[in-house]
Amino acid sequence: MTTSLSGLGTRRRTRRLSIIPVFSWVFIFLALGLLMLELIRFSQQVERYAADVVVAGVDVGGLTTTDAANKLEQAYAAPITLWYDNSPIVLDPAQVGFRTNREAMLASARSGGT
What we know:
Strand content: 5-15%
């Protein structure tokens, strides 16, 4: 006589997802996200000048190359007042043909030259 299990009195095992692998994967993805964020921040810092950089008398510390070039242009485009025998002479740099070589100045600052 053979007996077969009819399923009565037997427990069916359900497969349950353990919480440890779920938390592990969540933390792995969080770590990868933070890594990407820090890499982006680092690559942006490389494009900025150090905090104590002064180019041609203009403080450009902490600025990007574009912002530093704009700041240099603004600084050297401002009118200059010359005094001759107690008489002021206002000189506009654009009218006398003064131009800055901002690429050379910024390249020198990047390379650490003065």
